[in-house]
Amino acid sequence: MPPLYEWFMTKYFKIAAYISTPIIILSVISIIIITNITQSPEKQPGEKEPDARIRIALLNGCGSEGLALKFADVLRAHGFDVVNGNGGNADSFDFDTSVVVDRKGDREKALIVAEFLGIEYVLDQYSANPYTIEDVVVVLGRDWDSLHITGGE
Fold first, then answer.
1. CA-to-CA dists, residue 43 to 48, 57, 81, 110, angstroms
2. Closest to 89 (Cα-Cα) out of 73, 71, 105
3. Whose CB among 68, 72, 129, 153 lies 3.0–4.6 Å from 82's, allowing a Cys bridge?
4. Which fold has domain 51-146?
């Protein structure tokens, strides 16, 4: 090979090494930073998921005026997500007992809500409808004043 070619190749590789090394280092640092920013914080051992992830549809099943609104306010204040605005009315006002209904097949969420409110009965009524928003339905019965929270009063 001609000496000029060898000199050029040696010089070329040195220049390429000098240019590419900082680029590679900056790329690695950028990847590390982006990975750390986008990762969610790790849960501490024994830490529960926030209750806000539990979407609740709240229904008044006893006919007591404004009851669903009162409970919706209290549930939101405790971090739950009440998805039907200020609550609504059940199909009837004949519910003597309050119930929690699991709508998504995650009974653990229904049990968390039932325990929080002091409701004894948890029912499973899964919805195959992919547009069902709520994880849990709470129907407030005539026993609402015996629950752990009584409409924030």
1. 8, 28, 21, 22
2. 71
3. 72
4. Alpha-Beta Plaits (3.30.70)
Residue length of the chain: 153
pLDDT in tens, 72-113: 998 998 889 999 988 899 999 999 999 999 999 899 999 999
Distance CA 136, CA 70 (A): 18
Neighbours of 37 (CB within 10 A): 7
Which of 28-32, 61-65, 83-87, 107-111 bottoms out in mean pLDDT, i.e. has the lowest?
A: 28-32
Q: In this structure, what DSSP letter does residue 62 have? A: S
pTM of the model: 0.64
CB neighbourhood size of 82 (10 A): 22
Residue 153 reports pLDDT greater than 50: no
Question: Could you state, in order of their start, the residue ranges of all structural domains in the chain?
Answer: 1-39, 51-146
